[in-house]
């Protein structure tokens, strides 16, 4: 897991060959883009533009992915993202190959909470269980771009 400002994206471009395309998209992102799914590099990189209200942690699901890493970029608003190694998560559902997701009932061990706000991103790898969209205080509106990068 990595958390940083988009201004520092150049430091992470070399971590995976397709991260450059992900960061290029985020740097050029037009905030007027409607919510939806958009291809960047065929099926190897695509984005999900989302608008939602954050919720209490108890109302959010833990998840992990096998085939894609997530770059979750906050366009506006702020949220908490909880992260734990997948080995510290309990109650795993069956892997949904079509959605590339495993959901979990919760953490059975230690978890860390990340505060992520406008202009910042978090990268989650397959071993990073994560629970995004958690309210900082009360629920607030967030605009986010999730870039899915095929590993």
Portion in beta strands = over 45%
Q: What's the CATH class label?
A: Mainly Beta
What is the distance, rounded to the nearest whole angstrom, between the alpha carbons of the first and last residues?
Answer: 15 Å
CATH homologous superfamily title: YhcH/YjgK/YiaL
Structural class category: mainly beta
CATH 2nd-level architecture? Sandwich
Count of helices?
A: 1
Give the % helix. under 10%
- Profile the largest sheet: 6 strands, antiparallel
Low-confidence residue ranges? none
Overall shape: it is globular
Could you explain how this protein is built, in words?
- The protein has one helix and 13 strands.
- The mean pLDDT is 96.
- A hairpin with a 3-residue loop joins strand 2 (36-41) and strand 3.
- The protein has a single domain (2-150), classed as Jelly Rolls (Sandwich), CATH 2.60.120.
- The strands form four sheets. The protein has a six-stranded antiparallel beta sheet, covered by helices on one side.
- With 151 residues, the chain is mostly beta strands.
- The chain has one helix spanning 19-28, and strands at 2-5, 36-41, 45-53, 62-64, 68-76, 78-85, 89-90, 102-104, 106-107, 112-117, 120-124, 128-134, 141-150.
- The protein is globular, with a radius of gyration of 15 Å.
- The protein starts with a strand and ends with a strand.
Secondary-structure blueprint:
Elements: E1 2-5, H1 19-28, E2 36-41, E3 45-53, E4 62-64, E5 68-76, E6 78-85, E7 89-90, E8 102-104, E9 106-107, E10 112-117, E11 120-124, E12 128-134, E13 141-150
Antiparallel strand pairs: 1-11, 2-3, 3-13, 4-8, 5-11, 5-13, 6-10, 6-12, 7-9
């Amino acid at each position: 897991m990595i958390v940083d400002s988009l201004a520092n994206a150049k430091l992470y471009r070399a971590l995976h060959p397709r991260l450059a395309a992900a960061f290029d998209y985020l740097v050029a992102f037009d905030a007027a883009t409607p919510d939806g799914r958009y291809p960047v590099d065929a099926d190897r990189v695509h984005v999900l533009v989302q608008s939602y209200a954050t919720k209490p942690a108890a109302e959010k699901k833990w998840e992990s992915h096998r085939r894609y890493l997530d770059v979750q970029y906050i366009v506006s608003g702020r949220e908490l993202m909880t992260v734990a190694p997948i080995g510290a998560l309990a109650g795993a559902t069956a892997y949904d190959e079509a959605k590339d997701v495993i959901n979990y009932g919760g953490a059975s061990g230690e978890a860390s909470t990340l505060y992520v706000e406008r202009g910042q991103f978090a990268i989650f790898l397959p071993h990073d269980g994560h629970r995004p969209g958690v309210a900082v205080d009360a629920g607030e509106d967030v605009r986010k771009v999730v870039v899915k990068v095929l590993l």
